[in-house]
Design goal:
By secondary structure, the protein is an alpha/beta fold. It has a 6-stranded mixed β-sheet with strand order 3-2-4-1-5-6. The mean pLDDT is 95. It is 38% helix and 13% strand. Helix 2 (30-45) packs across helix 3, helix 4 crosses helix 5 and helix 6 (152-172) crosses helix 7. The protein has 8 helices and 6 strands, in the order E-H-H-E-H-E-H-H-H-E-H-E-E-H.
Length: 247
């Protein structure tokens, strides 16, 4: 059985403050650090070993991965970073409190911005200091490819080529892989793997710091997928993510 593990980063400072984060490079909270450590300990306890890992350019995912690999004594394995695994860009919403935004625009509208498939928030102005074109870590990315806002559809269009061109081939070569990234970049890949309809993807809420395992048969057909850990607690965490956009 071939396996790959997806992991949304641990709780970030803006997760705690219930803010739209997107490409804003915020750090982990003490709780987020603990979630990452617990994920690493659980993966080691369950007998997982990895040959290679992937993450985004954002520190909340990078630090989560570093902590997990440290707990597993796998600090030495190759790690590949890609901007294509970054979170969905929330445009002009970045930094705003989700509950306050729901109170202003309505929960239905905020749910559309957070979870719809093809509706993007209002974009940043090109001269906005938050434009990733002004961030040196993206200097090698063609400016036309750097988003000022994204829908989930846009995020998938950005992440999927990296999945198909780098991660999936490594899995088919027999490598044991861990991907530490973000709620929406991972939702996009998961949507593709599970063939989730556009209208149903809004129901998928990934909790922070919980390993999500995908198993494939010898022909690399998806057999099953499951979260590691206490299933009742995970359900509560998923509902908490869903509730973030309420007043």
């Amino acid at each position: 059985m071939k396996k790959i593990v997806f992991l949304r980063h641990g709780e970030s400072t803006w997760n705690k403050e219930n803010r739209f984060t997107g490409w804003t490079d915020v750090d982990l909270t003490p709780k987020g650090l603990s979630e990452a450590a617990a994920a690493g300990s659980l993966l080691k306890k369950e007998g997982f070993v990895f040959d290679r890992a992937y993450t985004s350019y954002l520190k909340r995912a990078v630090k989560t991965l570093d902590i997990v690999l440290d707990k597993m004594d796998l600090d030495w394995i190759p790690v590949e970073k890609s901007w294509r695994l970054n979170e969905k860009h929330y445009g002009s919403l970045q930094g705003l409190n989700k509950a306050e935004t729901a109170a202003k625009y309505g929960e239905a509208q905020v749910k559309i911005w957070r979870r719809s498939f093809d509706v993007a928030p209002a974009p940043l102005r090109p001269d906005d200091k938050r434009n990733p074109a002004f961030d040196q870590r993206y200097n090698a990315v063609p400016p036309r490819e750097l988003p000022l806002t994204e829908s989930l559809k846009d995020c998938i269009a950005r992440a999927l080529p990296y999945w198909q061109g780098a991660i999936w081939p490594a899995l088919r070569e027999g490598q044991r892989l861990l991907v530490a990234a973000h709620g929406n970049s991972l939702r996009g890949i998961i949507k593709y793997l599970k063939n989730i309809p556009d209208a149903e993807i809004s129901a998928l809420n990934l909790p922070t710091g919980v390993p999500y395992v995908f198993e494939f048969d010898a022909d690399y057909k998806l057999v099953k997928d499951y979260f590691l850990g206490n299933q009742e607690e995970i359900k509560k965490q998923m509902q908490s993510v869903a509730d973030q956009g309420k007043k």
